[in-house]
Structure formats: structure tokens, C-alpha cells
Specification:
Elements lengths: L4 E4 L3 H14 L10 H8 L4 E7 L2 E15 L2 E13 L8 H15 L4 E6 L4 H10 L3 E6 L18 E7 L3 H6 L10 H7 L8 E2 L5 E2 L11 E7 L2 H7 L1 H20 L2 E9 L6 E8 L9
Length: about 290
Amino acid sequence: MTNIQIRLIETPEEMRLVEELQRAVWPGSETDVVPLHMLITAVHNGGLVLGAFIDEILAGFVFGFPGIESTPDGPRPKHCSHMMGIHPDHRDEGIGFALKRAQWQMVRHQNLDHITWTYDPLLSRNAYLNIAKLGAVCITYRRSEYGDMRDGLNAGLPSDRFQLDWWINTPRVESRLSKRPRPTLKLHHVARSGLRPFYSLHTSSDMLSYPPEHVPPFEERLLLAEIPGDFLLLKSKDFALARDWRFFTRELFETAFAKAYIVTDFIFDKNEGDPRGLYVLTHGESTLDEFE
């Protein structure tokens, strides 16, 4: 396993490294880089920038700052985790999990219990980390959250996002971040439970997955919603199909959340180069355990 050192980043010299890493992670749009002076200002006012170093080389970072959210009982503080990036040469090495675990520890020391952030719900690897491994949940879909984005990963598609809720003092989250975390779900767990995806995907001869023409009715308390296993690869091969997926999942999740479903888990199986990703949508107190 890669030897990862996580530490707070506070100096201008190291913040410059964070600027450079952003350009490697999101190439093509200098205006989307959070500049050094903003990072410094944030950390001098309760924000956090954490870096993951491998042999003293910055391989990843996470950046967040204090925020205020509205609740029925009035405004309350939270931590807004705005950005996390891992160098392309160091993905799938556990760096993202290590950074979020360190963030979890630091934010708890600030006596906050809620962290929010956004991500593209069509990215299976991000969903696997955020929901399956970290224990975040989602009830909020935001259309075109960042307007028209110009970087190489996001250009051309509406910037729809999930806003996640990470309740960091709950047993759910603590069990996932413990030294013996709960195993993540795989397809064989689902098969054993008898639960099936509530719509089927059509796969073309070139192995690209097509969404259904319409969102099916929501008839069960537990639903599995499948997305492309590798959306970025699909997007690079067929941009029009990527747009179809964006609008299908927009309708799917907006409908689900309006009907009081919650995204509570994610299944990610790589299947020897043919990955599959499925969201678990839960209504009320239902859990997959009931079906095992």
C-alpha cells in the first residue's frame, strides 16, 4: 500500500502546490482554479486545506470552510467541503478516503457535526467513495449548480450535482471510518437479497449503456438505480449519449427525492474491466439487510 502522509497545509509555498495540482486534476480552465490568496484567507478563518503527500510530493488535497445552513430551528453552522482533487497518477490508491478521514477528525475538533459537499451523481468512483465508504447520504439534487463549466472534465454538460450530507458523529459514519469498517456492498450481496434494478439498461455493440426512455414508477421501498460504470469513458466516446444520461438521471433523482427516497448506499463492482454502479434508494426505514 502507498505510504500516504496527511498534513495541514497553511503556508503560501504549499498553497502554491495546491494551485498546481488543481491544474493537473481539472485541466483547461485557469479561471476555475481556486487561487492561493483565497486558500490562505479560508484557512486563517476556520477553513481547512489538507494535503496528501507521497515522498514529499503533493498527490491530493481537500479544501473546505465553515458555512451556515438554514434549518426549521434557525441557522446552524456546518463545514462546506468545496473541493477534493487527486493527481491522475495516484488515483485508486486510497488517497481520497485518507483525506476525508482526516477532514472528519479535524471538523469534529471544531465541534461541528455536519459536512456537505457536491459531486456529479454520474461518477461511479466518486459515489463509491462518498456514499459506500464514507457513509454520506443524499436527499438534494441541484440542477446546473455551477453554470457552464469550462474545464476538461465538465465542459459541455449541465453541471448537475448531488449535495451530500455527512453526519459525522453518527454510528453510520463512525462504523465506516473505524479500523474495521463495514464491508461495502457488491453485486453478489444484491443477488442474494433478491433485489433487482428497477429498470434495465440496453448495451450497444460497442459496450455503451443506454438509459431507459422513461423513468419507471416507484413502487418498492428499496430500489436499485443503475448508472454507467465509467461515465467519463462513455462521454469521451458518445457525447450525445452522455447528455441523455444527464437528463434521465436528473428526472430520476428529482422524482425520487420528491417522493421522500434517500440515497443511502452505492454498489460498485469492476467486473474485470466492465464496471457496474448502482445507487440504493431507500424509502422510510427500509434497509437492504431486510432482504438478506
